[in-house]
Structure formats: structure tokens, C-alpha cells
Amino acid sequence: MSKPKYFLYARKSTEDDDKQVMSIPAQLVELREFASRENLEILQEFQESKSAKKPGRELFGEMMMRVEQMGNVGILAWHPDRLARNSIDGGRIIYAVDTSKIVSLRFPTFWFEPTTAGALYVTSGVQPVEILFRQFEAKC
């Protein structure tokens, strides 16, 4: 299989500015440096200032549509919670991993196993679903 190309996604919530860990420009600097160090090819960058607590982020949707059309791609983000904090978006990422549309999720300070369990962990904003699936997985 060829080395995946990546979509870079940087997001800052429009809510609770004082709680934000990193601005979009700071995320971009760190992500671009990480991509350069790891020799990751970036297809396109998406920058969005919107809460991820509810589905409906335009640029996230556009990125995921490209992921689903192309397949065999990766997503690079500063932290897993930049991608999904609701069950719809989290499920979309998990399904894209399950169907090999997403073959890699990379974060500068986070390691990801490209499995359903790994994707569930990455979509940490979906904690009740994650806990449910981990319990299910432990029984199997």
C-alpha cells in the first residue's frame, strides 16, 4: 500500500476562549513542523473556528466528504478533540477508519492504532460511546 497523503485540520472552538489550549495559528505551526519531521504529504489544510459539540461544521464536513471520496488518506490534527466531540462526527470518523477511507490519524503528541477501538479512543468527545464499545470489545 502506498504512503497516505494527509488532510490537515485545525479547529478552535468559538466558545470559552479562555479555556482554549492553542490558537489556530499555533496549531498550524506545530502541525506543519510535525508533518515536515515525519515526512507527511499534506493534500489540503482546513481551518475552522466553530464548536464541535454539535454536528454541522462546514469545513469538517467538506474534509470528510473528500476523505470518503478519495479513500486511503490520513488526517493530521493537533489533538483528537479537534476532530470530534459529538457522536455523529465521531461515528463518521470511526466508519471511515472501518472502511479504510482513513488509514492514518496523526497527532503530534498522541499515538493512534488504526482499528475501531483506536478510532473510538481518538473520538474522545464521544466518551459514553467509547465506554460502551470498550465494554463490548472486552466481552468478545
Topology:
Blueprint: E1 5-12, H1 24-38, E2 42-49, H2 58-70, E3 73-77, H3 87-98, E4 102-106, H4 116-122, H5 127-139
Parallel strand pairs: 1-2, 1-3, 3-4
Can you describe this structure in just a few lines?
43% of the residues lie in helices and 19% in strands.
Shape: globular
- Under CATH at level 1, the class stands as Alpha Beta
Q: What number of domains?
A: 1
Question: Which sequence of SSEs, written as H and E, runs from N to C?
Answer: EHEHEHEHH
CATH architecture: 3-Layer(aba) Sandwich
Distance between the terminal alpha carbons, to the nearest Å? 30 Å
Mean pLDDT over the residues: 81
Strand order across the largest sheet: 2-1-3-4
Strand composition percent: 15-25%
Radius of gyration, whole Å: 14 Å
User: Which regions have little confidence, pLDDT < 50, spanning 5+ residues?
Assistant: 124-140
What's the β-strand tally? 4
Structure description:
- The chain is an alpha/beta fold and about 140 residues long.
- It has one domain: Rossmann fold.
- The protein is about 45% helix and about 20% strand.
- The chain contains 5 helices and 4 strands; from the N terminus they run βαβαβαβαα.
- The protein has helices at about 25-40, 60-70, 85-100, 115-120, 125-140, and strands spanning about 5-10, 40-50, 75, 100-105.
- Strands 2-1-3-4 form a 4-stranded parallel sheet, with helices on both faces.
- Strand 3 (about 75), helix 3 and strand 4 form a beta-alpha-beta unit.
- The radius of gyration is 14 Å and the shape is globular.
- Residues about 125-140 have low confidence and may be disordered.
